Amino acid sequence: MSERLPFEPDSAADEAVCVTRGHPSADGAPPGASAIWFIYMVRTRSGSLYTGISTDPDRRLTQHQRGTGARALRGKGPLILAWRQEVGERGAALRLEYRLKQQNKAIKEQLILHPDHWHALSQQWLLTSPSAARREDKREPDAALTPDGLPS
Questions:
Q1: Residue 32 has pLDDT above 90, yes or no
Q2: Bridge partners of 83?
Q3: Residue 13 pLDDT > 60, yes or no?
Q4: Whose CA is closest to 37, among 79, 95, 82, 81?
Q5: What is the model's pTM?
Q6: Edge-to-edge strands of the sheet including 37-43?
Q7: Angle at which helices 90-102 and 130-139 pack, to 10 degrees?
Q8: 3 state SS for 112-143
Q9: What is the DSSP code (8-state) at residue 30?
Q10: Pairing, β 49-54 against β 37-43
Q11: Which comes out higher in pLDDT, residue 112 or 23?
Q12: What is the dihedral of CA 80, 123, 148, 144, to 10 degrees?
């Protein structure tokens, strides 16, 4: 396993810790600077999709490929970055990551094929309160999506 610097983040949570401890952020921005966050999907050798967030999806993919990223992806390579979208601030990225992880693979595949549908879907998810989203996710698949996984 490669040796990591003490401030090199291993996950999105670690990136936030770096800023709070005064270390340079993972994207090289000064501590406390607001970074632009992305949501991304990585495709594994078996075709599975992993969803995550990062300030630098290319760097994060490299970490996943080296085996220093998410444990869920270790030994599942080769890995490819199938999709990414800029989402702005970290709080929005976390909320959207949660919602996207709740969706089935068919909907994720539709987003990969039709990235232009992301904006409408993400705006709808951001306008839904977290508690309402949890109730909605437990009841039925996202009602705002058509059967083919596209926004209605």
A1: no
A2: 41
A3: no
A4: 95
A5: 0.68
A6: 49-54, 37-43, 80-88
A7: 10
A8: HHCHHHHHHHHHHHHHCCHHHHHHHHHHCCCC
A9: P
A10: antiparallel
A11: 112
A12: 150
**Backbone phi and psi for residue 80, each to the nearest 5 degrees, phi listed first:** -130, 145
Q: Are 133 and 99 in contact (CB under 8 A)?
A: yes
- Residue 137's identity, in one-letter code, is D
C-alpha distances in angstroms, 59 versus 31, 40, 116, 123, 126? 18, 12, 24, 26, 26
Q: How far is CA 96 from CA 2, 23, 93, 105, 126, in A?
A: 31, 27, 5, 16, 7
Domain spans of the chain? 12-139
User: Radius of gyration (Cα) for the chain, nearest Å?
Assistant: 16
Polymer length in residues for the chain: 152
Q: How many whole angstroms from its chain centre is CA 77?
A: 18
* Alpha helices, DSSP H, located in 37-78: 57-66
